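Quick one before lunch.
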Amino acid sequence: MAILARNLFIFFLFTLFAGGCYLVWTIEHRLPERTYTEFLYCLSHHDISDMTFTGNRVVVSHRAGETSTNPGFTYVTTVPKPEELIAELQDKNIRIVFNKDRSEIILQGLALLYVILLILVIVLSLGRMKREEKESKFATDKLILPDDGHKIVTFKDVAGIPEALEELQEIVAFLKNPAQFNQVGATIPKGVLLQGPPGTGKTLLARAIAGESGVPFYSFSGSDFVEMFVGVGASRVRDLFKEAKKNAPCIVFIDEIDAVGGSRSGGASASGSDERSQTLNALLVEMDGFGTSDNIIVIAATNRPDILDSALRRPGRFDRQVNILPPDVKGRQQILHVHAAKIKLAPDLDLDQIAQMCPGFTGAELANLVNEAALMAARGNKQSVDLTDFELARDRIMMGVERKGMIMTEQDRTILAYHEAGHAIIAKSLPDADPLHKITIIPRGRALGQTQQLALFDRHAYSYLYLKNRITILMGGRAAEDIAFKQRSTGAQGDILQATEIATNMICKWGMNEAMGPQAFIIDDSGFLGGSSQRLPMADETARTIDREIKILLTTCYEDAVAILSQKFYLLKNLAGILIQTETLDNEEFDIILACSEKKKAEDNISDKNECISCPAAQSCIHSKIKKSTPCIL
Ligand code: ADP
Ligand code: ZN
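Model of the adenosine-5'-diphosphate complex:
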């Protein structure tokens, strides 16, 4: 109705304006008015030249006199019976014009036009109202239909996060039999906040809760509420809870709640944040409004718990928070078992081994791994999925797709081979470093080459030695280029950045530096996604010391790397030479080349001879490789 009223109001305003304009115009252009008596006087005494009749109204024009004191003039008057005057006018030789009186017709036309416009405005407004009603109905309908996807998901499909499952068992028990809880007056949390990095199974878990307890599941994402128009999101929230109450017991799931529940302390008053805070308020009001007897559980998921508005966590709202972190090796095994049940595995395949191969993988990445491996097997026309498929799939996920089409000059390839060989030799030489997994000079994703290490176990804390070694390994690439070619390339950019980050954290965050002591100088304001860190306020002198200590740490590590590689230059040369031909080497192959190099060195006592290429063991490894990888550069 509001639209109609508004449009009518605008229409009347417009007519008033137009009428006003017309009035002003006519007043400005109106001719002076004279009485009939005055006219009769003029007729007998003055020199009238023209008379224009429109009905009774006459425009009378006087001829200008010969002197400038008598300019011609024009006025209007009303003549009661024009036809009686005609004879006299003719006598006086006055020009007579008769206009048809159209004022009546024009008035009627205007009135008609006005009515038509009015009807048009009403009809259009009503049409628009109907359309909007339909649209908003469609939007709410879409939102408040329970999701059917949960029917197939149960706790059996969620693996590797036992703590979270345990915490949520109680909610399932409540939803299955609310009466039992209500009877003894036990209150169950109204809201559960699942927080963890993307892909750890938060959505899956929420669906599984609904699936286990067999209640309707209303699922939508926080961004569904953030609309162009202020107030729409809030009204959707109200509609949703109205619907949920009708169908209780049920679960309302809000994914990415940070889209509406982001902290309001930012102070920005753009309409976007207005809308967000209205929506958030509506959500809070609704959550406060329903009692435990309403039997609705609100589950929200976020990967940015750090930016959530603190109002959300108050008692009676999302007072239960469940952290969901990427699974450990056992969790990965279980998740792999769940997903691998859908594909055909080779009989001798050991999923536990695969779980070890993927440190840090989330549930979603593992699901993707299984699928990619199956795709690899299908592409290779295999009957079942075996270990090589998984290895290829993992490399593809971890390192990106091979850029086979990229053309590199021979010189770039050589430098790259030395660079990667440098990383690998240092990784192999240092104690307590993760074992080497693969060295490659095939460009993948954004990296040109890669040297990969794989942890034998999940590391939760890092020792000083491990971190320092890590920096030295990162420096290995640049050091090798420096030793072999006496020049530096941009290829070390990523390594240097990473090394600087580690060194900065060691000194400013983890208190690992003697000079700086156990004090924090930077804080992290990042969520699970990792983000920026900020230096805390400090004296200039302190900042200078920090910079100096970071520099010392980095250069020491770099010098260590140079020292190791200079000492093993023979190995560096052999390894790089073979890498140029094979493009990739794994740990076993590296060991063969290492053994061969050591032997040669002992025999010849020459430190930098490139003889391994002719050594039989290395030869066999090169040949097996070349046979395996079809695009060959030999
Ligand atoms: P999130 O909501 O945390 O971003 P999802 O729940 O959407 O992650 O997970 C995406 C997919 O990853 C799921 O559909 C499922 O196939 C898989 N997945 C994630 N975590 C697990 C898990 N713990 N167990 C089994 N599968 C999982
Ligand atoms: Zn590198």
